[in-house]
């Protein structure tokens, strides 16, 4: 009876050994892709990746612009440049990156403690609180802005950010003309390399449509590829050369 269990025991030991070996062995790095298929409304594009990298000897950082050193593994273009900048991409894009260190490439600013001297502003306003606060018809006594204005705001009450900015710009229009560069006189910025909180929506600071902040894959490739081909005057670079890349 015992002899019957010997083969089973051997098989179980072998399978266990393979499982342990697979668990402890280092993960194999993905090989450089030979060709990459892109689907779009203008016709599928087969991009010969290996030819550009090996035969044309184009360094990785020439196209993969997030690559900082020769030791960095270049990210797939789709990690940053989606087919469509939509809610699905915003929700799932974090899965495209190997770790959170890449977050600061796009999420480059978060506000810290507000550098605001209330006593000094009282002096500037000659103790006229209504220079910043609402009049008696809205609030009999000056209150903290956050008592009524929330971070998100409503259709009736603007966000605390918009309400404060509307007040501040009356006196500090020169700061706001500088755009994002004008944040630091009032706001202390977070060190994003050490930041671990939730990221503010891009539209809170960038007034342009969010879609303009990240190029979709088609526009990114057109800009990157066409600029290079036009500069070299080689390959498909003319307006009539679409069929050289796009398949019907």
Automatic annotation (TrEMBL):
Heme c 1 binds at residues 121, 129, 132, 134, 145, 183, 186-187, 202, 205-206. Residues 39-110, 113-176, 182-246 form the Class III cytochrome C domain. Its cofactor is heme c. Pfam families: Cytochrom_CIII (PF02085). Keywords: Electron transport, Heme, Iron, Metal-binding, Transport. Heme c 4 binds at residue 133. This is Cytochrome c family protein. It comes from Maridesulfovibrio salexigens (strain ATCC 14822 / DSM 2638 / NCIMB 8403 / VKM B-1763) (Desulfovibrio salexigens).
């Amino acid at each position: 009876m015992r002899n019957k269990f010997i083969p089973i025991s051997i098989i179980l030991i072998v399978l266990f050994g393979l499982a342990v070996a697979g668990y402890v062995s280092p993960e194999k790095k993905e090989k450089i892709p030979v060709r990459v298929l892109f689907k779009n409304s203008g016709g599928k594009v087969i991009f010969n990746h290996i030819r550009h990298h090996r035969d044309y000897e184009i360094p990785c950082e020439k196209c993969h612009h997030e690559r900082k050193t020769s030791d960095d593994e270049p990210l797939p273009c789709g990690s940053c440049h989606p087919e469509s900048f939509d809610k699905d991409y915003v929700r799932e894009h974090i899965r495209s990156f190997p770790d959170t260190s890449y977050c600061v490439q796009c999420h480059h600013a978060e506000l810290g403690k507000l550098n605001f001297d209330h006593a000094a502003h009282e002096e500037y306003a000659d103790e006229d609180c209504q220079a910043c606060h609402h009049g008696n018809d809205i609030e009999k006594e000056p209150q903290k802005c956050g008592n009524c204005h929330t971070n998100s705001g409503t259709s009736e009450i603007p966000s605390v950010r918009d309400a404060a900015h509307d007040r501040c710009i009356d006196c500090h229009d020169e700061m706001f003309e500088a755009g994002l560069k004008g944040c630091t006189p009032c706001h202390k910025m977070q060190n994003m390399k050490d930041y671990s909180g939730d990221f503010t929506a891009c539209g809170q600071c960038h007034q342009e449509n969010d879609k303009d902040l990240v190029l979709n894959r088609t526009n990114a490739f057109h800009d990157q590829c066409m600029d290079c081909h036009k500069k070299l005057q080689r390959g498909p670079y003319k307006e009539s050369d679409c069929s050289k890349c796009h398949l019907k």
